Amino acid sequence: MRAYDPYMDMISEVIGTVRAGNAYARRIAESGAWGARYPSFAGIGFHLVLSGTGWLILRGGESIALGPGDVVLVPYGTEHGLSHAPCALGALPVASMGPEPPRPGPSDFEFLCGSYHLDGGKVHQFLRALPDVIAISPDYERHPQLRSLTALLGDDVSETRPGDDATRSALVDLTLVHALRHWQEQSGDEPWPAITDPGIAAALRTIHDAPDGQWTVQRLSEIAGMSRTTFVRRFTDLVGKPPATYLTGWRLTLGARLLRETSAPLAAIARQVGYSSEFAFANAFRREYGVSPGRFRQNMRAAAPHR
């Protein structure tokens, strides 16, 4: 049996949900008078400053100075900008999302961008509990792992090689994990809702570990060691949605990941995530994502970054 974690490892959970989308990353170099606005999107993203100084531009007119090593985390895709000087967000041109052309000579500001875009999906509610844009200055002496990840991600985006899709997703995952850990450490005010009830945590682990199980609210309440009524109330209070709704969402998130990452038949995916038939899975998926599973798979492959 696993040791009880009062936070139910929410960072791992939210990273698991965003893997239903495509991972993107690229290296950008700017010189002179430069600036770009990043429109809002469904997903999570980051910028990591490699060299030079610049400004993070927020809605409402606020500007935050950035320097080497600083990380900008955008937990749920809020519009923001980067610029050589403070300015109004609306004055910046929309950033180009295509491949970054090589620039001759030295640059004034260089940074890495990484993100997960969720086509039709929903950003995890615990990410939405965070500020819309976060600037972090990590302590690289205490936590040198992020420095190593920065070097690895920078090298990974520098050229096209076999296995790019696998390495890109893994490195974006790890960078997001470390950025979220640094935010937790530096904020000091428990920005993540804590799952402090061991019974509710046990039910969540059951759902995560065996999404294909024939779970009912009654069975989950027994695992939690509570009456059904108490379990539903406690679960909804702590997690933000009723257990049946959460179970469905988790299964469909895993289904979306399998559609994106594998070529498994729809019937096999349906069984893996707890649906008795392909038809039942397809209907539930369409209600959640607005498209059929087959169309979702096609869209994700068409949207995958071509490097």
Automatic annotation (TrEMBL):
InterPro entries given in the database record: AraC_lig, AraC_XylS_family_regulators, Homeodomain-like_sf, HTH_AraC, HTH_AraC-typ_CS, RmlC-like_jellyroll, RmlC_Cupin_sf, Tscrpt_reg_AraC-type_HTH
Taxonomy, superkingdom: Bacteria
Record Gene3D superfamilies: Homeodomain-like, Jelly Rolls
SUPFAM superfamilies reported for this sequence: Homeodomain-like, RmlC-like cupins
Positions of the HTH araC/xylS-type domain: 201-299
Keywords linked to the UniProt accession: DNA-binding, Transcription, Transcription regulation
A Pfam family reported for this protein in Swiss-Prot or TrEMBL: HTH_18
Protein known as: AraC family transcriptional regulator
